[in-house]
Structures are given as structure tokens and as C-alpha cells.
Backbone:
């Protein structure tokens, strides 16, 4: 179906098979260009942003200023979906100046895996910005061969006490259902990377004490809404991209169920066949190929406050979703004519998007003037 007149009730399986038309007129300004940008984060209390480039660079951007490169970044394994990933300021950044980063590191015999590290970001007078004291605090395990489904998105709980990381199933399917490994999971950690107390499987023999939820495929959006609820945005196979209301200890079904099928055409049972597993708030068929996910907090876009804004690569723009409880409704699509990897809300309430790929533009979106 193309959507509902109101968000579906719990238990429904909402599949969007045709996009909603664009309702909001926007003015788009090109701000800069980057080489395969992946993530962006504004530093608290400023209009300065950090931007990662997948091949292994961290850039500092501010409107009207020269783009600067940060030194002291780690070496990354670059190729396929691998490389530099997320960047997020620590909850106490204003005083600590600590930032968290994710990237892909090499293992033995051609294997690799995602990691998360933290470091102090310094802006020395008369010198380029730099990272000091970079330390890896979490590693995806086990490392495997291949260049796909690292996920490695970072989100902090609203109280600033916990670090959440998405860990893709590395195109290995079944590890997503195993509680012995971190592949295909969302993990909850203390800020130093150790497993947080009270995680749902901490007392289960043989299970990973860091695991928060499981049965995930490739989570590229991870964030909290205004009520403090965690959501993820993840890639399905051939069809079945998902927006999920994430709850501790729950199984999100991959690869047992999906609203898409395998790339070789073999069918996968649908979510509706397994009511014991968590169904998505929305799934998309055809896919939107999601990038990042935010919940809009500002007032610049009237009527958008509290809505999920999903970056779409195949869909070539943004998808706006209204959520209610554990379900959602697609409201509209903002077409931008290119693959969108990242979306962030600026301190002024404007939206900033990063195009995917080489020469990917940083673009600023504001509502178009009335009457335009």
C-alpha cells in the first residue's frame, strides 16, 4: 500500500510501495564538496561541523571559512562499504573536547571489522586541528572477510550515560541471530566502551553482555527521538528497507524474515509470518537505500518537529516520516536529484545533507520563500 491516513496500530506491518509526493518547497544552497563523505556532526554550541571522508580523512567545515583537515586520524581499511565512518561529539564535549569516531580496521588473513575510538579534538593556535590520545574502545567481532555491512553508526543516550553502536552482520546472514557475536546487533556500552550494566543478555551464559538488540542486517541510521526512544534505519535485501522502533532484548528478524527477498531471487518469509519477531515501523519496497536518520527538533520547517528524516540513496533525497508509538507513516519525499548519504540538523534548524560518492556536495535546505 502507498501509506495510511494515520500511523498504523501496533502489530500492523506497514509496507510503503509507492512514494508520497513532495509537499514542502525548499531552497537548496551548495556549501562545499567532499570526497566520498560519510558522516557529519555539528560541534555543540557552534556552527562548525566535522565531516568524515570514507578513504580516511576528517575535515572541519564552517560556512564561509576554509575547509581544514584534522591530523592524527587512524589508518582505515578502505574499499567497498569500508573506510572511515561516523563522527559524534561526546555528551560532555563542551568541557572535554572528546569526539567519538568509527572506522574499519584490518585483521588477520584478509579479514576486517569496524571499531569505535575516542580522542580529544584540539584547535592549536596557528596550527591545523588535530586528534590527541586516540584510543580504540570497541571492536566488532569476529572480523571476517568482505567489504560490506559494517554499519558502525554511533548514538548517545539522551542522558549522556551510554554509547550505542550499530554492528552490521557483514553479509554473513546467520550471525545476526547468534548472541555469541556482535555481528547483526545494536550494542549498548559505557562511554569507555565496556558493556553497560543491565543489558538484556548480561546474565545469559555464552551471550554477549554488550548486546541491546539483535537480528539486524545493516543499520546506517541510529538515533533517539524527543521522548528518548531509540530508532534505527537499516538496509533490507532486494526490498524491505526498515525503520525500526528498537527495544532491549528484542529480535528484529534478519535473516529469518524480511519484507524483501534475496538478491538471487529466493524468497524470504515476510515479517507477518513471525509475530514473535519485531516488525518494522515502516518497510520500503522498492528500497530507499537509507543513509542517516534524524528526528527533527527545530521550528524552521513548520509541522516537521518530531518527524523522522531519512536520507535516501536510491530514492535520491529525503523521506519524512511521522511516528506514533511503534509505527509510522511516510509523509513526503524531498527530491534532491542525487544519492544522499547523510542528513543533519544545523543549529539554525536548517537541514544539511551530504551527497554520496566522489565530489559529494554539502547542501543546505531551508523552506522556500512563501509564494515561490
Residues:
Amino acid at each position: 500500500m502507498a501509506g495510511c491516513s494515520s500511523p498504523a496500530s501496533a502489530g500492523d506491518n506497514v509496507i510503503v510501495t509507492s512514494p508520497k509526493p513532495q509537499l514542502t518547497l525548499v531552497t537548496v544552497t551548495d556549501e562545499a564538496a567532499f570526497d566520498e563523505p560519510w558522516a557529519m556532526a555539528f560541534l555543540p554550541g557552534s556552527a562548525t561541523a566535522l565531516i568524515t571522508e570514507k578513504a580516511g580523512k576528517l575535515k572541519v567545515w564552517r560556512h564561509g571559512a576554509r575547509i581544514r583537515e584534522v591530523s592524527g586520524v587512524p589508518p582505515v581499511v578502505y574499499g567497498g562499504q569500508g573506510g572511515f565512518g561516523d563522527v559524534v561529539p561526546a555528551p560532555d564535549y563542551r568541557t572535554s573536547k572528546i569526539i567519538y569516531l568509527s572506522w574499519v580496521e584490518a585483521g588477520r588473513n584478509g579479514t576486517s571489522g569496524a571499531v569505535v575510538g575516542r580522542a580529544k579534538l584540539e584547535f592549536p593556535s596557528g596550527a591545523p586541528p588535530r586528534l590527541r590520545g586516540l584510543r580504540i574502545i570497541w571492536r566488532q567481532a569476529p572480523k571476517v572477510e568482505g567489504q560490506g555491512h559494517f554499519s558502525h553508526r554511533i548514538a548517545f543516550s539522551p542522558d549522556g550515560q551510554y554509547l550505542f553502536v550499530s554492528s552490521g552482520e557483514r553479509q554473513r546472514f546467520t550471525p545476526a541471530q547468534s548472541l555469541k557475536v556482535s555481528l547483526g546487533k545494536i550494542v549498548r556500552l559505557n562511554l569507555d566502551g565496556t558493556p553497560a550494566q543491565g543489558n538484556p543478555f548480561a546474565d545469559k551464559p555464552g551471550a554477549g553482555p554488550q548486546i541491546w538488540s539483535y537480528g539486524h542486517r545493516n543499520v546506517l541510521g541510529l538515533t533517539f527521538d524527543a521522548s528518548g526512544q531509540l530508532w534505527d534505519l537499516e538496509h533490507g535485501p532486494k526490498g524491505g528497507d526498515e525503520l525500526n522502533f528498537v527495544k532491549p532484548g528484542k529480535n528484529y528478524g534478519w535473516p529469518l524474515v524480511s519484507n524483501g527477498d534475496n538478491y538471487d531471487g529466493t524468497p524470504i518469509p515476510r515479517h507477518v509470518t513471525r509475530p514473535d519477531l519485531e516488525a518494522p515501523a515502516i518497510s520500503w519496497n522498492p528500497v530507499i537505500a537509507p543513509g542517516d536518520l534524524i528526528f527533527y527538533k527545530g521550528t524552521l520547517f513548520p509541522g516537521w518537529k518530531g518527524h523522522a528524516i531519512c536520507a535516501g540513496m536510491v530514492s535520491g533525497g529525503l523521506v519524512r516520516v511521522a511516528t506514533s508509538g511503534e509505527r509510522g507513516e511516510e509523509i513526503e519525499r524531498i527530491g534532491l536529484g542525487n544519492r544522499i548519504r547523510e542528513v543533519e540538523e544545523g543549529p539554525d534548524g536548517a537541514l544539511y545533507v551530504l551527497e554520496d560518492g566522489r565530489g559529494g556536495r554539502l547542501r543546505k535546505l531551508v523552506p522556500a520563500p512563501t509564494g515561490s
